[in-house]
Amino acid sequence: MTTSVIKPTGLVHGHSECRYLDETIPVLTRVLALDLVDRRDHEAVLKHPNTGWKLILHEGGAEVKDKPERNHYGVRVSNNEEVDRAYQYLLANKEKLGLKKVVKRKERAGSYSLFFVEPGGNYWEIESYENRHKAGLPEHIAYPWKTKLTEERLSGCGYIPQAMTHGTMECVNLEASVNFYRGALGLDVITHVPTSKPHDVKHPLTPWYVASLEIPEKNRKYLTPLQRYTVSVESPSALAAAHDALQDRRKEFGITAIDEIKDISDGQFFLLSDLNRNWWEVAYLQD
Questions:
Q1: Residues 54, 230: Cα–Cα separation, whole Å
Q2: Reduced to 3 states, what is the DSSP secondary structure of residue 225?
Q3: In the chain, what's the furthest Cα-to-Cα distance?
Q4: What per-residue confidence (pLDDT) applies to 287?
Q5: pTM (2 decimals)?
Q6: How far apart are CA 235 and CA 58, in angstroms?
Q7: What single DSSP character describes residue 62?
Q8: Which residues contact 261 (CB under 8 A, 6 or more apart)?
Q9: Which CATH number fits the domain 67-219, given the four candidates 3.90.700.10, 3.10.180.10, 3.40.50.360, 3.40.50.2300?
């Protein structure tokens, strides 16, 4: 078995760039049951109570562009009926919430969902794995929460997001990308559907994942470093070793950029751009 460059302790953060925090935060807390954990200057930290990873929101102002649908985050509800209720609620409150779009997606291999675009220009998915579970997907994967939230959490909405389950990104060559995810980042790559190639990138100890969606180069949309995912390591020395090793092997993995290590209040990190020019953060974060 090949040893990966990084020995990750977790896939701990997703980052997202919005226009204005004052527009985006109320939607994510009211519609998706996320909690506001921290806010300072032009940055906010949100988290779903049933999910360990955090969402870091970056405020970029009026010039921030809308993101493509294939770069979205998603939450999961308990059944298909709740997706239908969510669709009706969001349509009825579209103007009040400032949503740009609310659309139902055709069911794909048992995934039943809708998409909406929040005021900051980001797509979100509300999905159900009811039919995937009926088709044989284990319960702990289809319903990755231990304590079910009650309707009081989102009173009057008719649905309850029970977990923040995934993010997504685009890739051009899935096979080469999987080599990077596994060999460089030390993450697992799995699939929830036997007929699909493994493309869901995750840490082996946690259920949330990032779906890597293969598309033609001509359709790629390239995003800023504020749209990224964070992989954590156990110590400053592990971070330094990972940085040096990735520098040495950047041609092997197709790494297109790698920044220097920077200090932050709770640790250290560096950014890198992978073969698809998607951005990743590798960080040592103090408890």
A1: 10
A2: coil
A3: 55
A4: 74
A5: 0.95
A6: 26
A7: T
A8: 239, 240, 243, 268, 269, 270
A9: 3.10.180.10
CA distances from 117 to 22, 31, 67, 258 (A): 16, 12, 9, 31
- Give the separation between CA 253 and CA 104, rounded to whole angstroms: 37
CA–CA separation, 165 vs 75, rounded Å?
A: 5
Question: What DSSP line would sit under 90-116, residue for residue?
Answer: HHHTHHHHT-SEEEEEEEETTEEEEEE
- Mean confidence (pLDDT) of the chain: 96
CA distance 76 to 50: 11
Of the candidates 119, 122, 139, the residue with the CA atom closest to the CA atom of residue 130: 139
Instruction: For tokens 């029970």, name the residue.
Output: 162
Look at residues 152, 158, 285, 287 and name the one whose alpha carbon lies nearest to residue 230: 285
Q: Domain extents for the chain?
A: 67-219
Q: Is 24 exposed, middle or buried (CB count within 10 Å of its CB: 0-12, 13-18, 19+)?
A: buried
Block residue for tokens 């289809």: 142
CA distance 180 to 111: 27
pLDDT bin (cut points 50, 70, 90) of residue 131 is very high
